[in-house]
TrEMBL record:
It comes from Niabella drilacis (strain DSM 25811 / CCM 8410 / CCUG 62505 / LMG 26954 / E90). This is Amino acid transporter. Keywords: Membrane, Transmembrane, Transmembrane helix, Transport. Pfam families: AA_permease_2 (PF13520), AA_permease_C (PF13906). It comes from the Bacteria. InterPro entries: AA/rel_permease1, CAT_C. GO terms for molecular function: amino acid transmembrane transporter activity. Gene3D superfamilies: Amino acid/polyamine transporter I. Signal peptide: none annotated. GO terms for cellular component: membrane. It is a multi-pass membrane protein.
């Protein structure tokens, strides 16, 4: 049992598998299409929504967070790029882990990717609904019934909170707070009922999921044309916002640059990193690329660089127009800063936000079915998941099932923990991809293939670890002295120090390459900054996945025969 669950696949066998399928995917994607898909996935809710929360905690210094995240993702992107060149098939980190670590690790990361894409898309669909309703109200002056725009839990919690607040002392509440509480009560009372239970559902989120699923189902050509158009539109709008916003910047708002020190900047890790997982989605389309070994690496790097520049510019513009403290509880920061200064820009932002989140939804709806398809090919999921439509050349059943899961989730669920859960799944995948290159036998550089340049980490990594320990010495000492009384967050910090030390020793002994090692360490550090409650739900999800693996995947795996 112990040896068999770590059985590995050979790269030559993986590459040959798609050729033996009854129907193959349609190879039409170029480097431009792949880059646009990456931008489509990265430039979405992060730049139109969560950047406000990150700015509130980090101040103008939140721009540094985008640099840190981009560098972190850059290490991972380079590792993804080499894997994509060596293993040019669908499956992303799942397939790469199957080659590097074996079946059980591949299953775990595949299960984590399912969480990443499914729950991530539920968040995006819910965000889209909010932007769409904002567009209807402020641009077209159309008001949908409130019970069609929100999930049950959010509506009921808002009602209970409003009743409790208004029943007490309201002297400290602003007129806006009073208005919002009364609105929550009116919406609750006006909702239709089944028995005594009020009915709430997020219908726009469900409808857009259904439409995007249909687009992903009918073909990659139609999907890429739609994505390319949406990317060009939203990049144009973002550049326009940066130019117009520059005229309203007050440089005094950039002082202090780090109002809550570096710890405040890191509080936005989950919100920011959630936006940076686009190049993972690119790798799932490997079997639809004309030249995956050349174009996948280029597109990953191009999309990462372009998106990072856009995010940094927007962060500086936002914190230059408004003081960072103004972004508390602001869900639409771009519209917020122009609301009083240039209301006409706010309307453009509303349209662009709808387009941006639509493109994110499309790319993720393309990615998840291809993960399932790869797992099914390996026998870890039933064969129906690998079925390819003879006409549309897409994984038909997997695409429909993805739409059903995301659509129902967007219809009834709230988006509370899911951003953190998505970030855990993504970072987990990045760590295994970077670590996978350390255990794979090295290969020589071949024409037309991407290979990470070897930089000996034997001396650099120990120096960087020593610098890290020095900078965080107070936290390390405090965590160690109070190890019995500390919260889970500090326990995770100490665990990171132990793993980082062991990996550094191994790097010195084995002369590991600098880039993969830094990819592992940087992603591992970002993981420990995610709240412990999200980790609890992540482990619950992993436990469910392992049960499914041992009940079905272990016995039906192709490698078990």
């Amino acid at each position: 049992m112990g040896g068999s669950i770590f059985r590995k696949k050979k790269i030559e066998n993986i590459i040959a598998e798609p050729e033996g399928q009854e129907h193959s995917l349609n190879r039409i994607l170029t480097v431009k299409d792949l880059t646009f898909l990456g931008i489509a996935a990265v430039v979405g809710a992060g730049i139109f929504s969560t950047i406000g929360s990150a700015a509130y905690h980090g101040g103008p210094g939140v721009s540094l967070l985008f640099v840190i995240t981009a560098v972190t993702c850059g290490f991972s992107a380079l590792c993804y790029a080499e894997f994509a060149s060596r293993v040019p098939v669908s499956g992303s980190a799942y397939t790469y882990s199957y080659v590097s670590f074996g079946e059980i690790v591949a299953w775990v990361i595949g299960w984590a990717l399912i969480l990443e894409y499914a729950i991530g898309n539920i968040v995006v669909a819910i965000s889209w609904s909010g932007y769409f309703n904002n567009l209807l109200v402020h641009v077209f002056h159309i008001h949908l019934p409130d019970w069609l725009l929100v999930d049950p839990e959010t509506a009921i919690n808002a009602y209970n909170d409003a009743v409790k607040t208004l029943a007490g002392n309201t002297a400290g509440l602003t007129p806006e707070d009073l208005k919002n509480h009364r609105f929550a009560i009116e919406a609750y009372n006006a909702a239709p009922r089944i028995g005594n239970m009020p009915v709430f559902l997020n219908l726009p989120a469900f409808i857009i999921t259904a439409l995007i699923t249909w687009l992903a189902y009918i073909g990659i050509k139609e999907s890429k044309q739609s994505a390319n158009f949406m990317v060009l539109f939203k990049i144009g709008v973002i550049i326009f916002i940066i130019v117009v916003g520059a005229f309203f910047v007050d440089t005094n708002n950039w002082t202090p640059f780090l109002p809550n020190r570096f710890e405040g900047v890191l509080k936005g890790v989950s919100a920011v990193f959630y936006a940076y997982i686009g190049f993972d989605a690119i790798s799932t389309t490997a079997e639809e690329c004309r030249n995956p070994q050349r174009d996948l690496p280029r597109s990953m790097i191009y999309s990462l660089v372009i998106c990072t520049v856009l995010y940094i510019a927007v962060a500086l513009i936002l914190t230059g127009i408004e003081n960072y403290a103004s972004f508390k509880n602001v869900s639409d920061p771009l519209a917020f800063v122009f609301e009083k200064r240039a209301p006409w820009v706010e309307k453009i932002v509303s349209v662009s936000a709808v387009v941006a989140t639509t493109s994110v939804l499309l790319v993720f709806q393309i990615g998840q079915p291809r993960i399932w398809m790869s797992m099914s090919r390996d026998g870890l999921l039933p064969k129906v998941f690998q079925k390819i439509h003879p006409r549309y050349k897409t994984p038909s059943f997997s695409t429909i099932l993805t739409g059903v899961i995301v659509g129902l989730g967007a219809l009834f669920l709230e988006s509370g923990l899911v951003t953190d859960l998505t970030s855990i799944g993504t970072l987990f995948a990045f760590i295994l991809v970077c670590g996978g290159l350390l255990v794979l036998p090295p290969v020589k550089k071949e024409p037309g293939k991407f290979k990470i340049p070897y930089i000996n980490g034997r001396y650099i990594i120990p120096v960087l670890l020593a610098l890290f320990v020095y900078l965080f010495r107070e936290r390390a000492v405090t965590s160690f002295e109070n190890i019995g009384n500390e919260g889970y967050q500090e326990v995770l910090f100490l665990l990171f120090l132990v793993i980082a030390t062991l990996l550094t020793i191994k790097t010195v002994i084995s002369r590991y390459s600098f880039i993969p090692v830094m990819g592992v360490l940087s992603c591992l550090y970002l993981l420990i900054e995610i709240p412990a409650i999200s980790w609890l739900w992540f482990f619950v999800w992993m436990a469910i996945g392992l049960v499914i693996y041992f009940l079905y995947g272990y016995r039906n795996s192709n490698l078990s025969r």
